[in-house]
Every structure is written in structure tokens, then in C-alpha cells.
Amino acid sequence: MAFAQSSMESFYSSDPVFRMAVKQFEVLADHLEIPQQYRQRIIQPKRSVTVSLPIELDDGRVEVYHGYRVQHHLSIGPTKGGTRFSPRLTLGESAALSVWMSWKCALVGLPYGGAKGGVAVDPNKLSRREMEKLSRRYMQEMIPFVGPRTDIMGPDMGTNAQVMAWFMDTYSMHAGHAVPEIVTGKPVAIGGVAGRRESTGRGVVFLVERALDHLNIEPAKCTAIVQGFGNVGSVTACGLAYRSGMKITGLSDHTVCLYDPKGLDVSAADRHVQEHKTLKEFPQGERVKPEDFLTLPCDVLVPAAVERVIHASNAALLRCRVLAEAANGPTTPEADELLDQRREEIFVIPDVLCNAGGVITSYFEWVQDMQSLFWTDIEMTDRLYRILDTAFNAVSKRSKERNVSNRTAAMAIGIERVLEAKRDRGLFP
Ligand code: NAD
Fold it and tell me: Taking CB atoms and a 6 Å cutoff, what residues make up the pocket around ligand 1?
């Protein structure tokens, strides 16, 4: 792959997550025979911003945090993407996530490029007051670079509807009037939509059912293991248990991995986490080592936590029939090669498709805010499922016709659409 090394080195390439996004793209660019002249234009993020965020902590000390925002491409509309508050966040990780977001938006036909960003901070260590100060400071610093037609933020790991409300308020105070369309995933009272928080998990459940139907497997006879019990993981686990009728045999978060072949009580786990924040003291299931958790036997495996948890050392050991990638980037390219050899055994719903329910519902929220005309819940759920169904069918069809993996098919559709937009618009000036 003939990238000019200097430009790749400049900002992001030392980051392993960005290197992973580039490696995936290289495989796809070769597969699609994309001319060299277009490759850098497609993969390199358009704009990245790093900011210092000094805030006064409750004890009077001043702490300076680092914030990032990366906008991948603006060729078909504004960029769209989550804001992550996580101690591990880097510019490179934000860049990788913005790239994946672009493929995802293009795959499901949204008029957005991808973006991502956030603050390198452990939100569990901040009080509510400190969280508000940091959120407002972050948005204040971002005001020159974002806007409803430039870049729209949403929630991601470590942020929630309250953080979006603080972002919206900070931006609106600057504008002099309410600008609800600057963020998605905000509370309903200020222009959010009911069900946004649940939408990613609901989409995952819909696609798992779609995949099982494709494979002629009855959901009610299946077992499922879900890694991560936050927003996406908990909603997915509840949906798989109570909508699809599956037995949930494994649940985990960053504190513990629980397994019971007879099934865990997901709603009890949900109540426990609402009260105690984590699953650590949840009194059900056998405690298993994190490195053994994903290779336990199940029909449906859902990584819904962090990146790169399925790698060269465990991909050959997975014992599931469907791998539903609810998290972003859970599978490394090395693992993907191994999974490709097991295509007949394991049906992969790749992340760009599997967790697209969140950004689709965010798009609905943005459209409604822009026109100040709100849809009913039924209209939104119906539209969400129709878009996911169309994307699922397009991926399955392409995978079958071209004899490629679902991931290759999904990313190829997304990348081709971005390429087409860039070709149509031409190079400025
Ligand atoms: P969250 O912060 O609500 O929850 C994350 C969960 O993962 C927590 O339960 C945490 O304890 C757990 N976790 C963290 N590290 C872990 C580890 N090493 N092993 C096991 N569990 C671990 O975050 P979320 O919003 O649910 O996001 C989860 C994933 O889904 C991320 O990859 C995110 O980018 C992706 N995603 C989220 C949305 C959304 O709408 N929230 C949309 C698309 C994709």
C-alpha cells in the first residue's frame, strides 16, 4: 500500500487503533481497486482539534484535561459522531472511530461524514459538578469547529443525555437562542427523542434476529453472552432475553465476568447496576477470567464494550454461531482473517452495521430538530428497522455475490459511497 509515510506519521499513526482502521481500509482499497490518488483523500481525516480544558475541582485544585475532536470527511454533509469521556482516549483513537463512523453512515445511507472525540478522563472519578464544568468547557472550546451543518455531537462511552444537555446549553448561550440540533441524544424536554438511549441496543437485537432468521435458527432456542453492561450492552441483553426469548448465559463489565449455563436474570442485573454502578457484587453466576469469557460456548456473542477484544489469540477459539459486534472495532484485522476462514461456522454482523441503530436514531433527532416537527415513536421505530433491514440485505447480497465476508461487504458499500461523493464533487480548487 503506497501511502506517503510522512503524512500518515504526522498525527495519528502511532496509535494502534488508528493503525487498525488504516489496515482495514488498505485491504478494502485493494479489494475495490481504488486508485492510489484517492486513497489518502478517503482515509485521512479532514480536520482534528486538540484542546486543553482547565477546570477547578471540588477541592479547589485546578486540573487540565485533554480534549479531542476529529472530523473525518465533509463531502456529503456535516460530520456526526459521539463524544467519549474515557481515560484511554487519544487523538488517534478518535481518528479511527471517526473513520469507522464514516463507513457506517454511508452504509446506512445517512448524509453525514464521521466524527468522534471526547476527553481523556475517568468520568467515574468526577463529581456531578466537575462533570458539568468539564462538559461545558469542552463544548465552549469546540464552538468554532462544530455546528448543526458542520459537526453534530452525540453521546458515547462515559457520556449521557445530561452531558448532551450541558453541551446544548453552552452552545445555545453562545448563539443567543436555543440550538437543539447541535447535539443528539439529549433529554426529550429539550428536543431529544424518546428511545435514543435504547436505539443502539434495539438495533443490535433486530439484526441478531435478522441473522438468525437468515440462518434458520430459532432465537428462543439460543443462548447469548454479552460483554459490557453499559448503555448498549444492557439494552441488548434485555432485548435478547425478553424480546427474542434467549437464555443469557454470560454478562460482564470492566469489574467482573459472570457465567451460568442455566441463565442469568438480566433485569435483576440491570437493577443491580442502576443501584451499585457495576456488576461486581451481583450475586449470580460463576466468576470467570476475562481472557476466558469470550470463548465460552454460546449461540450469540455480543462484544459491547471496548475495541480489540477479539484478536489473533482468541478468534480461532470462539464458540458462537453469530458474532454481533455492538462495540466499535471489537475485532482486530488479524482476528478478522481467522474469522474469514470460519465464515461457514460464524456469522459476523460487523460493527459498522451492527451498532448503526444509534446514529440512525440520532439522524432522526437531528432532522426533527432542524424542522421543528416531531414524529411518533412508531414512525421512528418503523423507519429504524426498515433502514437496518435494507442495509442487512445489501450486505448479505454483496457477501454472497462476491464471496467476501460480511465485514468486507459492509465496508465496501460504505467506502464506495464516500469515494463516489468525492469523485462527484472533485478536488477544490
Ligand atoms: P458505556 O460507557 O455505557 O458502557 C461500557 C460498558 O463496557 C460498561 O459496562 C463497562 O464496565 C464495560 N467495559 C469497559 N471496559 C471493559 C472491558 N475491558 N471488559 C468488559 N467490559 C468493559 O458505553 P456504551 O455507550 O454502551 O458503548 C459501548 C460500545 O458501543 C463502545 O464501543 C461504543 O463506541 C459503542 N457504541 C455505542 C453507541 C451508543 O449509542 N452508546 C452507539 C454505537 C456504538
Answer: 155-158, 200, 227-233, 252-254, 304-306, 326-328, 355, 358
Cβ–Cβ < 8 Å for 22, 13 = yes
Task: Select from 62, 46, 45 the least CA-distant residue to 54.
Answer: 62
Active site residue 186: no
Domains identified in the chain and CATH numbers: 1-41 (no CATH), 45-179 (3.40.50.10860), 198-355 (3.40.50.720)
Residue nearest to atom 43 of ligand 1 (CA): 355
Q: For 15-58, what is each residue's pLDDT tens digit?
A: 899 998 999 999 999 999 999 888 999 999 999 999 999 999 99
Rounded to two decimals, the pTM is: 0.93
Alpha carbons 16 and 56: distance in angstroms, whole number: 33
Tell me the HSE value of 378 on the side-chain side, using a 13 A CA sphere.
Answer: 0
pLDDT at 10: 53
pLDDT digits (tens, 9 = 90+) for 318-355: 999 999 999 999 999 999 999 999 999 999 999 999 99
Which three cell numbers, joined as nine digits, stand for 16?
A: 494502534
Burial of 50 (0-12, 13-18, 19+ CB in 10 A): middle
What is the whole-number distance in angstroms between the Cα of residue 247 and the centre of ligand 1? Answer: 21
CA of residue 158 to ligand 1 center, whole Å: 8
Q: How confident is the model at residue 8 (pLDDT cuts 50, 70, 90)?
A: very low
How high does pLDDT run on average in the chain? Answer: 95
Q: Report CA torsion sign: 224, 225, 229, 231.
A: negative
b or e along 334-354 (b: 16 or more beta carbons within 10 Å of the residue's beta carbon)? Answer: bbbebbbeeeeebbbbbbbbb
- Please pick, among 104, 116, 186, 247, the residue that the annotation labels catalytic: 116
pLDDT at 4 over 90: no
